Amino acid sequence: MNRPEPRRQPPPPLRLITIDLDDTVWPCAPVIAAAEQAQYAWLVASAPRLTARLGPDALREHRLALIAERPDIAHDVTAVRLESLRRLLAEHDYDPAHADEAMALFRDWRNRVEPYADAAPALRLLRERQPVVALTNGNAELHQTPLHGLFHHALTAADAGAAKPHPAMFEQAMAWAGARAAETLHVGDDPVRDVEAARRIGISAVWVNRTGLTWPEELPPPVLEVTDLHALVAWLDAAGDQPAAPEDSRAV
Ligand SMILES: [Mg+2]
Fold it and tell me: 123: Cβ–Cβ under 8 A, 6 or more apart, which residues?
């Protein structure tokens, strides 16, 4: 006799869903590439002595070296980019304050994300059920993106003072929502920074695997693997979880 597959259920009742951004609700690499390209073009025009010596790869290596040197800002990708540019501008006899202008340009492009087709419709359904909070290690400004208004709250690693897999961002989201770990579900694409990080503090986690990756064999499997956020909504619907709608209408 075949034993039925155990049904994996979300933790009832859910009072909070936290969702990663990069590669979970929009692809990350194309927008970073476009932002870096726009910023480099600005540097070519504004700091030619710098770009005569250093190409985009050298700028990346400079940032990586800075991350190793400055663990105090390593979690804050904006601070790292800004400090790296300041130093390089100064080294090439330019005013380091010009880095602010270069970063403003980068951030403008960084927000030009193109969400996956399922992201906005699924978020509209999810936000009716319980608070939905964005948790990102990146530096997109959610209110400047096409997904503005679809999350109740958003936290970045820079806000939290630590990047996932550190628990700070999860803990701050739970404190904001008044939810315990057992009442929270995290959704993200990174097996370690999202799924394992959430589970380590008692939060169930769904793995968003949009590109057919293999789950790392050294980690226990996630409670659910989905290829898009529609599948997450369907899973929650099937579980019959019907928590109260959020009491406030805050949106970011
Ligand atoms: Mg991600």
Answer: 19, 25, 132, 147, 150, 151, 229
* Domains identified in the chain, total number: 2
Distance 83 CA to ligand 1 centre (A): 24
- The strand pairing partners of 187, in sequence order, are 19, 206
How far does the centroid of ligand 1 lie from the alpha carbon of residue 33, in Å?
16
176 Cα to the center of ligand 1, angstroms: 21
| Residue where a domain stops, chosen among 110, 128, 154 | 110
pTM: 0.89
User: Ligand 1: distance of its center to the CA of 85 in Å?
Assistant: 25
Distance (angstroms) between ligand 1 centre and the Cα of 143 equals 18
Which phi and psi angles does 95 have, rounded to 5°? Answer: -70, 120
| Residue 249 pLDDT greater than 80, yes or no | no
Both 77 and 143 in a single domain? no
**136 CA distance to ligand 1 centroid (A)?**
7
- How much distance in Å is there from the Cα of 38 to the middle of ligand 1? 23
- The larger pLDDT score, comparing residue 6 to residue 104, is at 104
- Cα distance between residue 23 and residue 93, in whole Å: 38
Which residue in 245, 249, 225 sits closest to 126, CA to CA? 245
Q: Which residue matches tokens 């980019």?
A: 81
CA of 89 to the centre of ligand 1 (A): 31
Q: Residue 13: what pLDDT?
A: 84
- Which among 129, 131, 144, 130 is positioned nearest to 26, based on CA atoms? 144
